[in-house]
C-alpha cells in the first residue's frame, strides 16, 4: 500500500492485515523500553491544519515508538498562518525528504492532493467531512479485540452524520468487515442519498436501537443549533442521547472523542462497563504504528533516490514480524 | 446598439470596414438547418457576405479584391456550418487579466468556431457605468478577434439592491443585463428591473440560485457554501451540496414575475431536470423566456467530482445522470434554446487547492462544439442539425440576427473536419487559463477555420500550414 487516503480505497484484506499487525505492536507498549528500531532513520512529518489531540499525539508517539524522526507542524504559528498555499507548504516540507506525511485538513481531498504533489507516503488524518481512515481502522481493531469478528454484527452510528468524517469512514470499514450498519440522527443531519452512497440503513429515531450490538455515538456540536439543524441541544439530547436507559446491558458503546458530556452521551454510560472509549484511545496508538509500518517498512525508496545509489541509506533494521 | 443588429455590428477588430478578398470553399458539406440548406456546394464569400452556394466544382475561382488576395479552399469531406454564438462568456477584463483578456478570450472563441460572444459583467470592478461599457467597447475594437458584446450589471455592484442605470448603459451599447455569478435574490428588485425593461428594451439574463438553499450553513457563513450537486456523491465525499431546487425554485419565481410584468428573461446555465421542467411550464404558459445549457452539463455528471479534481468545480454544479438526460431532451425539444459555454477562466492558483477552496468555473470556448459532437452527435444521441442550430441560437434572445448561410447574409461560418481526431489541450490553449474539464479528452471533429463577416478570424495551425 502506497498511501492511506480513504477507507473507500481499501479491501477487507487490507483492513485485516493492518489490524492484525496492530495486535503485534500492542506488545511493544507493555515493554520497559517502549521502542523498536523498525523505522530508524526515516522522517515523518505531521501536518495539522486543524486542532487535534488524540490523532496528532498518537501519530507522533507511534512514529517515535518505531524510532522514526518525527516533526509536527501545526497551522497556528506556522507559515500556513501567513497565507502559504498547501502546494507551497508541501514543496517546502518535501525539501526535508520525508518518507511520510500525515495530514489533517478542513478540506475534503487535501490528502489526495498532497499524494499527487509529494513522493512521500501520505496518510489522511482527516480531510474535511470526507474520511478519517485511521480512526475507522482503530475502531475495527477495538471491536475485533472485543468481539472476535464484526461479521453479522449490528452497529448503530448515532448523531451528526452530515458533518462527520468518522461516520463516513466507519460505515465503509464496518461494512467491509461484514457488519450491518445503521446510521441514526436528526433528518437534517443525515445527507440526502447517504444510504445509496455508502450502503447502510438510515433511521431517524432510536426506536430500533435495541437490535444493535454496538452503539457508536458521534460528537454533536453546539453550533448546529444556530444553523437550525436542530431546534435546541436540549431537544437533541431528549431524542438522541445515549444514556443508561437506552443502552442495553449487552451493548457496547463507542465514541471517537472528544465527548460532549451530557449531550450525545450521558455521564454514566461514558464511564460505564460497556464503554470502549478508553480502549479506543489505546488502540489508536498501536493501529497508527501498524499504519506507519504498512506504508514505510519494506524498503520504500527515498524520494528521488535511484536504486544502487552509493549514498542511499541502509534499509530499516527488520524486527520480528508481529504475530 | 439597435435591437436587431447583425453579429458583426458588435465590437471587434474586423469592424473597421476594410475590404477583404473573396473566399471560395469548394465541395463543402453545407449544413444550415434554419435556412433549410443541407448539401454539397461551393460556398462563395464576397464583400463579407455569402455571395453564392454554387453546385460543387462550379464556382468561379476567387478574384483578388482591394486589400487582399482571394483564397480557394478544397473542402471536400469537410463541413460548413453557420458560425456559433456564445451568449455567456467571462473575459475577466477589467481586473483579472492574468486569467483572460479581450485578446486571448476572443481568440479562444474564434478557435472554437464562434463568430460572436457576449461577455458577462462580473468583472473587478463590475461593469455598471456607461464609461465602463464605452471603455470595453473601445478595447474590443482593437483587441477582439470576434464580435463581442458586453453585458452590464442589473444592480449596482451586483449587490442585488439598487438598479444600475440601465437606460444609459444601454444607450452606451450594453448588449444586455446580468448579475451573472450571483442571483437577484430580492424579488422586489428583480420585479423593478423587469418593469424598467419596458423603457430599456434589452434582455435580462439571470443566474438562478437561491442562496438560502445553496449555502447550507446559512447566510452568516457564505464561505461554507455548497461545493457540488447534492446527492449520493456529495454524501459520500462529505461535501456541502447545492440542491437542484436551489435553481428550479428561483426559475419558477422569476418566470412568474416575468409573466406578471410581461417582461422577457433569459435563464442562464440550466443544470437540473426540475429547471428544464420549470422553463417548459413557463413557455407553455406563454412567458417570454429563453434559456441555455453548457457543454459540461450536457456531457458530465457529479460522478466526475469523485476525483475531487477542482477542474470539475463550477456553479451550477455537475448534476446527476437523470439531470443530464433532461438537459439533452430539453436541447432536442427546444425547451433549451441554445448552448452557452459559461467560459470561466481561473488561474492555476485558484484551482490547485482542495476542492472546497477552489474557485468555481471552467473554460469551454475551444472545446464546446467538438465535445458535443463527440459525446452526443456521434453516438446518435443528438442530431447534428439540432446541435448546429443550438450552437448559434443564443444570439436571438439578445436581439441579434442569427447567422445564416443563405446567400445575401453576413458570411459567418465555420469550416469543420468531422473526421479529425485530436486531444483537447495537447497543443496548448488560446485562452490564458487552462481550467478545462475536458483537457486530455480524445475528441473527434475539429474546427479548421472560423470566418466572421467574410474575414478569417481563426485557422487551425496544421490546416493553415496545409493550405499555405
Secondary-structure map:
The complex is a heterodimer of chains A (323) and B (468).
Chain A: H1 12-25, E1 43-48, H2 54-65, E2 69-74, H3 86-94, E3 100-105, H4 110-117, E4 121-127, H5 133-147, E5 154-158, H6 165-176, E6 180-184, H7 194-198, E7 201-203, E8 214-217, H8 233-240, E9 252-254, H9 267-270, H10 277-296
Parallel strand pairs in A: 1-2, 1-3, 3-4, 5-6, 5-8, 6-7, 8-9
Helix pairs in contact in A: 1-5, 1-10, 2-10, 3-4, 5-6, 5-10
Chain B: E1 23-32, E2 37-46, E3 49-54, E4 71-74, E5 79-82, E6 84-89, H1 102-111, E7 114-119, H2 130-143, E8 148-152, H3 166-171, E9 176-178, H4 187-200, E10 204-206, H5 211-214, E11 228-229, H6 232-237, E12 241-242, H7 245-260, E13 264-267, H8 273-284, E14 288-293, H9 295-299, H10 321-333, E15 338-339, H11 348-351, H12 368-377, H13 384-392, E16 413-423, E17 442-452, E18 455-459, H14 461-467
Parallel strand pairs in B: 1-4, 1-5, 6-7, 7-8, 8-9, 9-10, 10-13, 11-12, 13-14, 14-15
Antiparallel strand pairs in B: 1-2, 2-3, 5-16, 16-17, 17-18
Task: Write structural notes for this entry.
The complex is a heterodimer of chains A (323) and B (468). Chain A folds into two domains: 7-131 and 283-296, Rossmann fold; 133-279, Aspartate/ornithine carbamoyltransferase (Rossmann fold). Helix content of chain A is 33%, strand content 14%. Chain A is built from ten helices and nine strands. Chain A has helices spanning 12-25, 54-65, 86-94, 110-117, 133-147, 165-176, 194-198, 233-240, 267-270, 277-296, and strands at residues 43-48, 69-74, 100-105, 121-127, 154-158, 180-184, 201-203, 214-217, 252-254. Chain A has a five-stranded parallel β-sheet with strand order 7-6-5-8-9, covered by helices on one side. The radius of gyration of chain A is 20 Å and the shape is globular. Chain B is of the alpha/beta class and 468 residues long. In chain B, β6 (84-89), α1 and β7 form a beta-alpha-beta unit. In chain B, strands 1, 2, 3, 4, 5, 16, 17 and 18 form an eight-stranded mixed β-sheet that branches. Chain B has an eight-stranded parallel β-sheet with strand order 6-7-8-9-10-13-14-15. A two-stranded parallel sheet of chain B has the order 11-12. Chain B has helices at residues 102-111, 130-143, 166-171, 187-200, 211-214, 232-237, 245-260, 273-284, 295-299, 321-333, 348-351, 368-377, 384-392, 461-467; strands spanning 23-32, 37-46, 49-54, 71-74, 79-82, 84-89, 114-119, 148-152, 176-178, 204-206, 228-229, 241-242, 264-267, 288-293, 338-339, 413-423, 442-452, 455-459. The chains are: A alpha/beta (323), B alpha/beta (468).
